[in-house]
Prior knowledge:
This protein is of the alpha+beta class. The chain is built from 37 helices and 20 strands. The longest helix is centred in the last third of the chain and has 31 residues, at 742-772.
Amino acid sequence: MEVPAGKEPAAAALHSVSQPVPVHITVLKAQGLIPQNKVLITSVRVEYNGAVLGDSPKISVLPEGTAEYNFSTSFECSPDGPNTLDVLVQKPVLLTLLEVVPKDKKKPEKVTPLGQAVVDLLPLLQGSRSLKVFAPLYAVSNSPSEMLHPEAMGGLEVTVNTKEPLLSATQFSSGNLLSITLEAAFSLPNTFSADAQQNCMVCLQIPAAGEKEFPLLFKNGILKADGKNEPLPRPKHWPLGPILAPDALNIPNSFIVGGPYEDEDGELTRSEDREFRLQAESTKRIVWDTERRCFLDAASVAILKKRIAEHRRWPVELCRMATASAAKGKTTRADKGDEDKQIAFHGVAYVNMMHLLCPGVKQIRGAFRVFNYQGKEVFQKTRFKHSIFRDCRSQLGLDKEGFQTSPPSRAVPSKAVKEDKDSATVSISLCQPWLQTARHREQCLSPQQYSEAGTFLVMEIKLDKPLVPKRLREELIRRVKELIPPRPELPRRTEGAKKAVEDYHKRITNVAVAILREYRELFGKQLPDQGALDHKTLEEQKRQLDYELNTSGKYFAFKEQLKYSVVKIVREKYLKTTAFETKEQLQSFLSELYVYLVDHMHIALNKLLSEEDVFPPSPSYTTMKQLLLFAREAEANKDYNLASVFYKQRIARDQRKIQSWLDYGAFCYLYEDATKAQECYQQALCLNPHHTQSLLVSGIVAVKLQHYEEAEIFFENACCLEPSSIEAWTLSGLFYEMQNSYIRAERSFREAKKLLKAQLEEERRLLEAAEGEGEEPEKIPDGSAAKPPKVVEDTFTHFLAHFLPALEPQPPPCTIFMKTVEFLMKVNAVRFVDKALAHELLNLQGGPTCAYYLARAWTYLMQEDFPRCEECLYEAVQMDPVNTKVWAQKGHLCYLQKDFDNAKECYERVISFVEDAEDIHFVYLRLGSIYLEEKEYGRAKQIYLLACDNSATCLTWLGVGIACYKMEEMLEAENALSEANALDNTNPDVWGYLALICLHVSAQPLQPGGGRHLEAEQCYKYSVKLGLRNEALLQEMRAVQQRYGFGDPSF
C-alpha cells in the first residue's frame, strides 16, 4: 500500500522554495458509500511520498452513503527535505479508505482497506494556493469486505492549500513543465520471457543547472503476450510502486491517444513500416504507460535548450534487472571492480530532440528503434560519456534492488574467486535465470539481439510551453508590413470639392449665356459682311455692354449668382473656414484663388463656345484576358520587350488587381531580374497583405535574392494565414531543407501530407455519396485529357520557359510535391521545382509517373537542355501515349529545335484528339506557321481560323490574313488584317501586309477599292515607324512599290 520512500531523481533541482512551506490537506467527507447490511465504520489514511501523514477519526457511514471526516494534516515542501518541488510535481497524495471493525471480547480491532484515491498537487506549482477536488475512490483488489454495494465506490472531497505560493508568477512563467510518457516496448527478442523476479526498466538523462545530468527512471514494465493491441485511448499512470488499488494509478484527465504513424516524430513512420508495427503491437511487448513530470526553472530551461542544440540525439537506455528478493547476497570483489561488463539486455534508443527547438513545438511522440548498448557508438552519436545503468547505479538506488553486472570471465584469477567462497550463492548476473545452457547464454548476450528482433520504444516528450515560441500572427503581419516599402498616398478626393467646382462651372455657363443674350439684344446676331469686327468697334461694344449691365443692376445680379459657388470652392477645395491672421496671408490666398477661378472660367467658356463635339474616348477592344494572352504570345516569339508592354498595360488598366502584378512579377522573375519581380510582389502585398499566393512568391524571390530571413517570414506568415494550404506547408519544408533545418522541413512536409490526406478522403466521400445517389461521375474520354477551366486572368498561368505552358499532370497528382510543382511551374520557380521533384522521386512507389517526366522535361527546357528534355518526353510517351500534354510538349521541343517535320506530326496528333490540349492556342499558332513555311496556305488558313475561334488574337488573324493574301483572296485578307489591327494596332507585320494589299488593289482600278495610293503609303509608314524587322516582308513591299511606282514617300 505504501509508496517507497526516498527522494526521486529529477530533471532539475529547483531552488525556488528557500524556506519550508506547509502544505495542508483536509479530507472533508466521503460520498457514494452505500452499506448493505450493517453500520459501516470507516477512516481515511493520508500518505505522501511513502510517509503516512495521519489517519482520520473513525466515522460511521450514513445510510445515504456519506461520512463527514473533516480531518486535516500537512507536510512541508522544502528544498532540503524529502518533499521537494521535484517530488511535488510528479507524486500525488494517496488516500486510503479503511473499514474499521471494532474489537469485541473475542476479536481485536480489524482494519481492512476498501479503496484508494489520489490528489494531483500540480496546480500548486501553477499559481494556485488552494484547490478543492473530488477524488474518485477505486476498489482495492481482492478486498474481503462485502459491506459496500458493488456499484457504491464514490469519492472523497478534499481540499489542499498553502499560505503562500510555491512559485512566484515570474518563476512559473520563466520555467517549464516537462512530461515524459513511456508507453511500451514492442518486437522484443525471443529470450524475453515472463518472470515475476525480473524488472524491465528504462532510463534517460535530463540536464540540470551546471554540468550535471539527472536520470529519469521508469520501472516495473509489464511483459504481455496476449496477442491483443493496447486499447486507445488509455490512461497514463503515476510513477508509483504497486498499490492496493491498481486503478488509482491512473492520472486524472491524462490519456494516451495514439495517432497515425505518419504523424509521429520518431522512426518507423513510412508506409512500408506500417505492417511491421501493426504486427509488433499485437505480440509480445513490455508496457509501462507511465508519465513522469519535471519542473524546470529558467536556468534549467536554458541548459535544456543548449544541450539539445549540442546533442541532437539523446540516449534512452533499456535493461532488465533482478528484483531485490532474487538478488540477495554478497557482491564479489570482481563485481565491485568491474564496471565495464555487459548488463543484461542492455539496449539504447536514440531520440531526436531537435523537434523541440522548432518554433511552437511542445510535444514529440514516436517509435524509436532499440540497439544493443555499445559505449563507443553511443558516444559517437550522442556525445554522452556515461551509461546510466552501468555508471549511476548508486544514484538510482539500484544496488539495493539487486542490480548486478554480468559474471566475471574465465580470465579472472582464481585467487579472487577463493577469497569469496560464498560467491556461488550470490546472484551476480541479471541473466542468471536464463543462463542454463550455452544456447541461452548466447541469446542473452547476443550483440545484435535488439537489432535482429527490430525492437522499438514508443514514448512521448511534452512541454507545457515551447522552448522556441512561435511568432504570433500579429507579429508576422507587422514584419511583412515592415518589409514592404510604403506606397505614396493617393491624392485626396473630396466629393464636396468636386461638386463645388462643377457648380462653379454651371454658374459661369449660366452667366455667360445671360451676357450673350444681352449682347444680342444690344447689337443683334448678325456679323458685318467682312465676317470680323475691328478692335475699336469691339472696345466700343464692350463699353456700352458694361454700361447697360451696371445701370440695369444685372451686373450685381450676375455677381451674386457666382458668389455662393466661389464660397463653396474656398471651403471645400481650399478648406479655408477661419479668418486670416495677417494681410499678407490674405493677399497671397486671394491671388492663388483668382488664378484658379480664371482658369476654370476659361474651361467652362471653352466647353460652352466650342463648335466641335467632344466625343468620349473609344472603348478598348481588348480585355485583361486578351492582354495576358498577347503577352504570352510575345514570349513565345521571344519578343520580351513587347511582352513587358502588354503586362504593363494590364496593370495600367487596373492597378488594384493583384493578379496583374503577380503575372508581371512571374515574367520578370524568369526573363528580367528578381529585383523587379520583388517590387511587383510587394505591390500585390500592399493591396492585400493577407494574400497567400503573394506571400509565397515573395518568399520564393527572397530566396533567389538570398534574403533568407525575409523568406522565412513570408513562408511562415502564409502558413499562419492559411493553415489549410498544402502548397504553403510544402514550400516551407523545401525552404527549411535549403537552410539545412531538416527537422522543421520534416514537420512541414508532415503537415502538408496530413492536409492532402484529409482532402483526398473528402473527395472520396463526395464521390461515394454521388454514386450512392445514382449519379455517375463524369468520365474523361479515352485519348484525351481533362480540359481545365479557361480562366487565364485568375491564375498564375502564363507561358513558361521557351513558351511552354505550365503543366498540370493528369490524373490529378496525389502527392504534396506534385501539387506544389503545379504552383511552382506557374511562377517559374525552377530551383524549387527541382527540389520538389527530387522529393517526388524518392517518395514514388513503382517508379516515376508520366506527370513526373512532364515536369522534369519542363525544367530541362528551362535550362535549354534539349537532349535530356527529349529523354524525359520519350519516357512520358511510353507511359501514356494518348496524353495530349505529352505530344504538345514534344511538338514544342521539336519546334524549338527547328525540327519542323516532327513538330508538325506531333501537333497534328494533338489536334486529332477529341478534347483540346491545355495549350491548344500555341499548338494552332505553331502548326499554322509551319504550314505557311511549307506553302500549304489552305491548311494554314484553316488552322488559324480554328485558333481565332478558340481565342482570337492579333497573331491568329494575322495568320489568316497572310494565308488569304498568299492565295490572292485580297478582300478576306484585308478583313482578317483589319481584325488583327483592331486587337493590336502596334504590330508592324499587320501594317506591312495591309500596305501590300493596298498596293495590289490600287494597281487594279477595275477592282473595288482601286486607287488606294494614300492608304498604301500610310500603311508603309506605320510599318516602318513601328520597327518592322521581317526582312522578307520588307523586300516584298519594296519590290511591289518599285513595280507599281508608288507606296513609298521617298519615290
